[in-house]
Amino acid sequence: MSNATKPPVIPKVTPTATPTTQNVNFSCSSINAVNSSAENTKLRFRAIAPIYSPLSLHLGVDQFSSSFTAALKTIKLDVLTNMDQSRTPLKWRGKLVNVVGQQDEARQYQSTEQNSKEVRLLCWSPSELGTNDSKVMFHVFTNHIAIAEIELVVDISAMDKVTDELVKSLESKVQCLAEQQVEHCFEDFYHDLKQLKLQLSDDFILAEKIPPKAGTWVARTMLVSDEQLAQVNIQRILTLWLQKTSRPEDAADIISGKKDYSMTWLNYAVKHAQPIGEDPYIQMMVLSQYYYISQEHCNSDLRSAIEMAYAQDKKQKIDKTLATTRTACRLNQIAYFENIKFLNRPNRALLEEILEYWKFNQLVENSERMIEVCNARLLEVDNKKRERSTIMTDFLLVTLSFFAVFELSLYLTEFSREMMSRPALDYNDNKSSFFLGLIAEVDADIMFSFGFGLTLLLIIVYRYIKRN
Questions:
Q1: What order of strands is seen across the sheet that includes strand 219-224?
Q2: Of 122, 346, 419, 456, most Cβ neighbours within 10 A?
Q3: Residue 209 in contact with residue 38, Cβ under 8 Å?
Q4: Is-contact 136 125, C-beta < 8 A?
Q5: pLDDT one-digit tens code per residue, 146-162
Q6: β partners of residue 265
Q7: Which residues sit opposite 52 in a β-bridge?
Q8: What are phi and psi of 311, to 5 degrees?
Q9: Rg of the chain's alpha carbons, rounded to an integer?
């Protein structure tokens, strides 16, 4: 069945942890945005989940080039111009943002508040979600990566005690609800990307099949306000929420007003968060997630290529796979260092701070080690090719030398016997040639054997000189 009749299967997001919730009396279905008259019984969360994106760019395409941005500005989101110049109205299932002319060269390095470049290819939001308490935005990047930003509201009125089990249950429920929202929206997301691809240049790739995606996570951001932080139970929840992160002391700083965010590891917190897609802290977290998952994909591809290269029963050529994977990883690292220079100073500082907590440099260093293994394997393959080429060259030289010596022997035998049988040929010489006479008396088979032996001797001398 084609993709036009069968929607693609959404890649499942693997939770980082699924703790038991025996002491908490609510399930994923019962916690889904329950309406409550008391606003202080609700907690807002912003889930951030890397997912597979069918849309990407070909390897090596510069999304900041003038030709690329000029092609984007020609896109019409209202109608599609067909080959016969007829126009077809486009029906979108969601809303596309930052597609046409999102790069503004005029303000590069001109503003201290805004970033000079936009790394995302586009953003997409669904038109209908089914609940008023949930919001979704997919941030689409290159390398077949999108980051889903999902806002959820969780009712905590049924919670009696603030314990570790309660926080673990909150983590599990936010993950569960985020997965449900991604799965609910992905078909419309894929439909709109296919419709958009009709107007995009050949620089873009749209996958026709969605491969299963494993090993992806859901990060959880608790959104709090000053009114909520004045409540003791919210303070205790926030403290437990951040206690196993890299900076558990951020909870006290947020409560006291010294800090507005905490973003270190999986559980985050932001005070006075702006609407979805606009909060600067969460936007830097989305960008950090992209760079991390992109590098992780590169490392995974490198491991697969190395495994394929050293497989015992391999039959396919691996040099092209290794070279392509190595180049993709290098370009990914180059893109990271090129892109971060376009961020304003606070955003860049926050991005680098987040990636430092995640030990991003270790991920890059491990990638460098795997690239060295790829280089060694490619060098080994190249040396084997050179060796085979050398053997072939030696074989051709041996063949040519054999025939050359054989032909020399044949010519000397023929010429010497002709000289001996026709004395008129050496009428200018004082006497007949002793050397030609000697050769003329030698049997032809012996002469041929001499030529073969001489060829073999030359081969032995050549191999000896080459070996030493």
A1: 94-97, 122-126, 135-140, 145-155, 42-52, 219-224, 267-271, 261-265
A2: 122
A3: no
A4: yes
A5: 999 999 998 877 666 77
A6: 267
A7: 145
A8: -65, 140
A9: 36
